[in-house]
Design brief:
Pfam families: Zn_ribbon_IS1595 (PF12760). This protein is globular. The chain has one domain. A 3-stranded antiparallel sheet has the order 1-2-3, with no helix packed on it. The protein is built from 8 helices and 3 strands; from the N terminus they run αααβββααααα. The protein is mostly helical. Helices cover about 50% and strands about 5% of the residues. α5 crosses α6.
């Protein structure tokens, strides 16, 4: 039986993440900023929103500024506060889409295309902006329980019972399943 290289093992993780993305794609599953923001709120505060400074649960929403204000300590914060997205001009949906792209490139062994220059071209932004975004994404997506990752990886991986995880057969199964999933996404 063939042994997996270190690169294959790394790619295993990315393929698993790719298969946990919405089957219809992130853009279709989160069609607007509001749906992305709602997902973040649900994950970040599953038991109800609370202040990031004093942990109070009396929060007022400031719709015009897209911020929240604590009625206890008067601290004002945004949904992106204390996340990788903090102080970014990109919308949460932009981050979701960029994360999907990052995962897809790595899952299909195209990580050589994940450069600042190629990202700048794809997203029509300045190179420095794209480079910073790529570096932040790489750091954030390295953690399995990051908020951004759990926000977009909504599905559970359904591995057949006859496939042993982390061996060569699992790698082949993942690769075949990823290719099939990608073809379905492109068609639909």
């Amino acid at each position: 039986m063939r042994q997996l290289s270190d690169r294959d093992r790394e790619r295993l993780r990315w393929m698993q993440l790719y298969l946990r993305l919405p089957a219809c794609g992130v853009a279709a599953y989160f069609p607007d900023d509001a749906s992305c923001e709602q997902r973040m709120v649900e994950l970040r505060w599953p038991e109800g929103m609370h202040c990031i400074r004093c942990d109070a649960d009396r929060i007022k929403t400031c719709h015009t500024r897209k911020t929240f204000r604590c009625k206890e300590c008067a601290h004002e914060f945004s949904l992106k506060a204390n996340t990788v997205m903090f102080r970014s001009r990109h919308t949460i949906r932009d981050w979701f889409l960029a994360a999907e792209e990052h995962i897809t490139l790595h899952a299909f062994g195209q990580d050589h295309l994940d450069t600042g220059h190629s990202m700048a071209d794809r997203h029509c932004v300045a190179y420095t902006t794209a480079y910073r975004l790529r570096v932040k994404l790489a750091c954030e997506l390295a953690h399995d329980h990051s908020l951004l990752l759990t926000s977009i990886c909504i599905s559970e991986l359904q591995v057949p019972q006859d496939v042993v995880q982390n061996d060569f057969d699992f790698y082949v199964w993942l690769l075949d399943t990823c290719v099939t999933q990608r073809q379905m996404r492109r068609q639909g």
